[in-house]
Design brief:
1 helix, Immunoglobulin-like, three-stranded antiparallel sheet, about 160 residues, alpha+beta, 9 strands, about 35% strand, six-stranded mixed sheet
Length: about 160
């Protein structure tokens, strides 16, 4: 069979190579888009925390391991530290690495709150990692993350 002859399905070798190249380009652009979204998430987090060191743990982040619908994913986050006038959680920020806009929610606290805890529902574009970052009054940053598998995307995904 030469290059212009079609096989039994009617596809020539040239058509097959062209379609294979197009599929490879499409897959590569999807990978690049994922990398671009994760980079956008890292930039958003670095704007928030700057050069401060991050401590893993100290935060309880509850998310479902599988979300049937990415439009309404329940999330709760708690930082179990005693609140005093000088030592308290200033803010908790939620990020979704693969969302078009990675900054999902921020909750702000004062010493009068007595406790740092919040619950909400968020949208997730697709299966990804949800990250919680807590800013403490002494400048420390705490972080934790959960992976959430999304079966139906919520951000047009």
């Amino acid at each position: 069979m030469n290059d212009n002859n079609a096989d039994q399905s009617g596809m020539t070798r040239r058509m097959m190579v062209t379609q294979s190249a197009a599929l490879a380009a499409l897959l590569a652009s999807g990978i690049a888009m994922g990398d671009e979204r994760i980079e956008r998430s890292r930039i958003a987090m670095s704007k928030l925390i700057g050069e401060r060191a991050i401590e893993d743990g100290g935060i309880t982040l509850k998310t479902p391991s599988i979300a049937e619908n990415g439009n309404t994913v329940p999330v709760s986050v708690t930082v179990d530290l005693p609140f005093t006038a000088d030592q308290y959680v200033k803010a908790i920020h939620l990020f979704a690495e693969e969302n078009p806009t990675p900054e999902v929610a921020s909750f702000f606290f004062t010493p009068l709150n007595g406790k740092a805890s919040a619950s909400t529902r968020i949208r997730l574009a697709k299966t990804q990692r949800v990250i919680a970052i807590a800013e403490l009054s002494d400048g420390r940053i705490l972080r934790t993350a959960n992976d959430v598998k999304v079966t139906i995307g919520g951000c047009g995904g």
